[in-house]
Design a protein that fits this description.
The protein has 12 helices and no strands. The longest helix has 34 residues, at 71-104. The protein folds into 2 domains: 1-47; 49-264, Orthogonal Bundle (MetI-like fold). The protein is globular, with a radius of gyration of 22 Å. Helix 11 (223-232) runs antiparallel to helix 12. By secondary structure, the chain is mainly α. It has helices at 2-14, 17-38, 50-57, 71-104, 106-119, 128-134, 139-163, 167-175, 180-191, 193-217, 223-232, 236-264. The relative contact order is 0.12.
Amino acid sequence: MLSSFLAEARLWLLSRKPWLMLLGFAIVLALWYLLVDLLQVPRFKELPSLLTVVEEWVSKDPIYGISIFTSEYYRHIFTSLLRVGIAFTLATAIGVPLGLFLGWSQRFREYVFPIFETLRPIPPLAWIPLAILMFQGRETPIIFLTFLASFFATTLNTMLGVRSIDETYVRAARCLGANDIQIFRHVVIPGSLRHIFNGLQISIGVAWFSLVAAEMVSGEYGLGYMINTGYTMIAYPTIVIGMITLGLVGFATSMVVSFIGARLTAWQASGNGKLT
């Protein structure tokens, strides 16, 4: 796996993609510098300048206490990574099997899916009072709130993956003498893998923004806590550092999920029918 990852990374570095990515980042940074530093647009006058944020981020003695040279910065990152890792693992372990059964069994879907669809639109922030009442300590409510959004994304995409499988494959398996368990193992699960990993890639993203919202409400460390503390302490460069760090870490985790999914679904053809 590691050698394959390194080989693909080398090919990616030799392609046009990293240059285009860097160009996109350069355009965003140039706009930031233009609007805040050069033009000083009134709407953006309170925002920290690009140079101020960079100087604070790489300072060995940061004014607001957070930079790449402070241990607290990495503690915030590690704490958020750990929380997302736990919540994402739980969402995958519960959401994938549930989604498979929702897509496979019509009777199970008729009982469970209406409840699922009723709960799914409720935002994680609305669960905060109940999470605090249900779970003790600081960590468990945060992980629960992070788990919720990730769970719904994982389950729904898994179910859609099962529903997208061409019925022809199921009929062919039955003609060859396969029973329901064998069809489920050898047709349904492999056939829905692409949708499952698409869902997991979405899931890891929504887990991050749910985590930040939860950490702003409860928590002692984490990127969300760092951003919220920066706001209450009027440390605007810290807010931006936290946001950029969150984006970079979230992007990295999403790419890891995407890479694993690409490895496990490389055998699949591009087109699928629909399982009725």
